[in-house]
Design brief:
single chain, about 450 residues, alpha+beta, Creatine Amidinohydrolase, Chain A, domain 1, Creatine Amidinohydrolase, 2 domains, 5-stranded mixed beta sheet, about 15% strand
C-alpha cells in the first residue's frame, strides 16, 4: 500500500468536498465459487482501496465530515482464522498503516449509523454493484433493497470522481508497472500466434504472466480470431494463416492498478496486403488521436478525429466514398467502428464506472450523444492534466450489421457495400494504448509494445 499520508490526504480532500454528514465506504467480502469456503480470488472494492487502502475482506470505512474523524469497522482474527490463514495484525495496527486511529468490530457499525440517522445526519454512499453490499446497505439504513441505488449520494459521486480522475505520481507509477507486465503478455501472445494453436493455450499463458506480476488480469482476456465481436471471450478457435488475432488484455498490480492494451496480429507472423491496409488505417487513427491528446480538448473531439482518420483511410481502400466530413456527421463510419475511442483507467480497467458512466465521462458541458457509435463513447468531457485513459480505435466487419445496414440502404452515399461484402470474413482490428495527460500534451505509459507492421512482424518472427 501507499504511505499513510496518501490515504489521510485523500480522505481529507473528500471530506472538504462533501457538505455534511457521514460518508460510508463498504469493502467487499469473499465471493464463493461453488461453496462457502471455496472462493474466487478476492478483489477489494476500489473506492475502499482508494481511501482506506486495506486489501482485506469484511471491512467498512466511515468518514465523519462534521467531526473530522475516520473509522474502520472490522473484526480481529480468531483462533480458527489463525489455524487456517495464519496470524494477522490487529485491526488497530492495520488501521494505523492507513492513518486511521479509530476502529471497532464490524457489528458496531449498525449502532453507529443508527445514532447518526436518529440525529438527522445525512449518510452518503456510492451505488453498490454487489448484491450482498446492496442488502447490507438496505439493512443498515432501513431502506428498501429495491430502491437502494436511488439513495446513493450524487454529491459524493461527483466529489470522488473529481479526486480519482487526477492520478498522482504514485498511481501513475503503479499503472506503468501494470503496462510493463502487459508488455510481456502481448509480446508472448504475438510469438505464440501460429497456425494450429488453440486460442485458449495462449490465454492461459497470458493469465499466468499477469499473476506472476502481482494479480490476475485486470479484466477477462479478449483473445480471438473473431475480432468482429468486440468483447469476445470464446477461446475455442484454432488459429490458421489468413486470420487476424485480436489480443485485448491487461495486467493488474499487487495494488490492483490496471493496464489495458490491445494489439492485433496476423496468424503466422506476416501481414497480407488486405490485412496491412486495414491495419494501417487503424494505426493511423490511433496515432492521430494520441498526438491530439492534451489538457483542455474534449475527448469527444479526439474520438471524432480518430473516426475521420479511419474513414479517410477506408475511402482510399475503396470501402467508403463521398465527403468524409459529411460521412462522420451522419455517423456512416460507425459501420466499421461502432464503439467509443476509450475510457478512464486506474484502479478499475473502466475506472470508476461503478458510479455511473455519465458521472465519469460527461458533465454539464458535455452530454452523451444518442447517435449510433458515438453513443458508446464512455469519455466525452475535456481532458485534464493527470487523466489516464485508453486510446483504442478499431475497424470491424460485422456481417449481421453489414446485412442490416445494406438492407435498410443506410448511408449508401458513403459506403461501398459491394466491396464491403468481400470483407465479411475479415474479422476485426483494434489497437489500444494507455495515455497520461501531461501539462502540455501526453505520455504513452509503459514499455512500448510493438505496434507498427514492421515491429509486429519482427517480434512474431523472433
Amino acid at each position: 500500500m501507499f504511505s499513510s499520508e496518501v490515504y489521510s490526504n485523500r480522505r481529507n480532500k473528500l471530506r472538504a468536498s462533501v457538505s455534511s454528514g457521514i460518508i460510508l465506504v463498504l469493502g467487499n467480502n469473499e465471493s464463493p465459487m461453488n461453496y462457502k469456503s471455496n472462493t474466487y480470488h478476492f478483489r477489494q472494492d476500489s473506492t475502499f482501496l482508494y481511501f482506506f487502502g486495506l486489501d482485506k475482506d469484511g471491512l467498512a470505512g466511515v468518514l465523519d465530515i462534521d467531526n473530522q474523524t475516520d473509522y474502520i469497522f472490522g473484526n480481529d482474527v480468531d483462533m480458527d482464522d489463525i489455524i487456517w490463514m495464519g496470524n494477522l495484525p490487529s485491526m488497530k495496527d492495520q488501521a494505523e498503516q492507513v492513518g486511521v486511529k479509530n476502529t471497532a468490530p464490524f457489528n458496531n457499525l449498525s449502532d453507529f449509523l443508527k445514532k447518526a440517522i436518529i440525529a438527522g445526519r445525512k449518510i452518503h454512499f456510492t451505488p453498490p454493484y454487489r448484491t450482498e453490499n446492496a442488502l447490507l446497505l438496505s439493512n443498515l439504513l432501513g431502506v428498501n433493497y429495491t430502491f437502494i441505488k436511488e439513495y446513493a449520494s450524487v454529491e459524493l459521486i461527483k466529489a470522488i470522481v473529481k479526486l480519482r480522475s487526477i492520478k498522482d505520481e504514485f498511481e501513475i507509477a503503479e499503472i506503468s508497472k501494470a503496462v510493463n507486465t502487459t508488455y510481456l503478455m502481448h509480446t508472448t501472445g504475438m510469438k505464440m500466434a501460429k497456425s494450429g494453436i488453440i486460442e485458449q493455450e495462449i490465454v492461459g499463458v497470458l493469465e499466468g504472466i499477469s499473476l506472476s506480476g502481482g494479480n490476475p488480469p485486470s479484466f477477462p482476456i479478449i483473445l480471438t480470431v473473431n475480432g468482429q465481436t468486440l468483447h469476445n471471450h470464446n477461446h475455442s478457435n484454432t488459429l490458421s494463416v489468413g486470420r487476424m488475432m485480436v489480443i485485448d488484455a491487461g495486467a493488474s498490480t499487487s495494488m490492483h492498478y490496471a493496464g489495458d492494451i490491445t494489439r492485433t496480429v496476423p496468424v503466422g507472423g506476416k501481414f497480407n496486403t488486405r490485412q496491412r491496409d486495414i491495419y494501417n488505417a487503424v494505426l493511423n487513427a490511433n496515432m492521430a488521436a494520441i498526438t491530439a491528446c492534451k489538457p483542455g480538448i474534449a475527448y469527444r473531439e479526439i474520438h471524432l478525429l480518430a473516426c475521420k482518420t479511419l474513414a479517410q483511410n477506408l475511402k482510399e481502400i475503396g470501402l467508403m466514398k463521398g465527403n468524409i466530413d459529411d460521412a462522420i456527421k451522419a455517423g456512416a463510419h460507425a459501420l466499421f467502428m461502432p464503439h467509443g475511442l476509450g475510457h478512464m483507467l486506474g484502479l478499475d480497467v473502466h475506472d470508476m464506472e461503478d458510479y455511473g458512466e455519465n458521472h465519469v465521462g460527461y458533465d454539464e458541458k458535455y452530454v452523451r450523444s444518442s447517435q449510433f457509435g458515438l453513443a458508446f463513447l464512455r469519455l466525452g468531457r475535456e481532458l485534464q492534466k493527470g487523466f489516464v485513459l485508453t486510446v483504442e480505435p478499431g475497424c470491424y466487419f460485422i456481417p449481421a450489421l453489414i446485412d442490416q445496414w445494406k438492407a435498410e440502404k443506410m448511408h449508401t452515399d458513403f459506403i461501398n457495400y459491394d466491396l464491403v461484402e468481400t470483407y465479411k470474413d475479415f474479422g476485426g482490428i483494434r489497437i489500444e494504448d494507455d495515455v497520461l495527460i501531461t501539462e502540455n500534451g501526453f505520455n504513452v505509459l509503459g514499455k512500448p509494445i510493438p505496434k507498427t507492421v514492421a515491429e509486429i512482424e519482427e517480434t512474431m518472427g523472433s
